[in-house]
Design brief:
Length: 249
């Protein structure tokens, strides 16, 4: 069933091979959007594209590691080549390896900065000239409740990356409101995705598994993203915080 203000929009989604990205792709395609999907795991992207097409939706898939600017550019140009325009980007790709600062997981810190901050910036850099030329567009960036309160011990660097995403998104909104570019920050709490399993310490993974027993399904966040997209062009939903009812922070 198509949804007004979503139907026929061209929507690029990074990190679309699982979790929130996959759920968002399915929901938006089912609402009539033309989704263009990027992720590192091409086998999963290909399977998702086939499934969406089998259900009557429009989907394209590309390999896109968001830490590689050339691959993000290729994803965006693939959308332009196929559809001639770009209406929305959902910068969903992100990682969450949690560990105490004293563990000195410097390589994990670097990876979080590369994916969670640079990946978002590469997405912005790829779409901003197009949206400015079009005089319309919508940039949706994935932050976290950890972008409001430092998740410590364990998530200090992760929170730092998500604070950065909020700053980037708000700065974009202020700088480009005259270009009719809408900017939305989505800040989820515990969501049932692969993120908790990405920590390298087994004790941390055990603690996260226990905490994530309260997690809400990924399609809860997908519906929030769809809500922001479906508003009239003159309405900019700037921030959505969504967490399990039972979550404290």
């Amino acid at each position: 069933m198509t949804t007004p203000n979503i139907a026929d929009k061209v929507v690029v989604i990074t990190g679309a091979s699982s979790g929130i990205g996959e759920s968002t792709a399915r929901l938006l395609a089912g609402s009539g959007a033309k989704v263009v999907l990027g992720a590192r795991r091409t086998d999963r992207i290909d399977a998702l594209v086939r499934d969406i097409a089998a259900r009557g939706g429009s989907a394209l898939g590309f390999q896109a590691d968001v830490t590689k600017r050339s691959e993000v550019e290729a994803l965006i140009q693939g959308a332009i080549h196929e559809h001639g325009r770009l209406d929305v980007i959902v910068n969903d790709a992100g990682i969450m390896p949690i560990a105490p600062m004293a563990a000195l997981k410097v390589e994990e810190w670097d990876r979080m900065i590369d994916v969670n901050i640079r990946g978002v910036l590469f997405g912005v850099a790829a779409v901003l000239p197009i949206m400015r030329k079009q005089k319309q567009g919508h940039i949706i960036n994935m932050s976290s409740v950890g972008g409001f309160k430092v998740w410590a011990p364990g998530g200090t660097v992760y929170s730092a990356t998500k604070f950065a995403v909020r700053a980037i998104t708000e700065g974009l909104r202020v700088e480009h409101k005259a270009d009719n570019i809408r900017c939305t920050i989505i800040s989820p709490g515990a969501v049932a995705t692969e993120l908790p399993e990405r920590s390298s310490e087994e004790d941390t993974r055990k603690n996260l598994r226990e905490f994530y027993k309260i997690a809400v399904p990924a399609d809860s966040v997908a519906r929030a993203i769809a809500y922001a997209i479906e508003q009239p062009a003159e309405v900019d939903v700037n921030e959505i915080v969504i967490r399990p009812t039972k979550q404290d922070f």
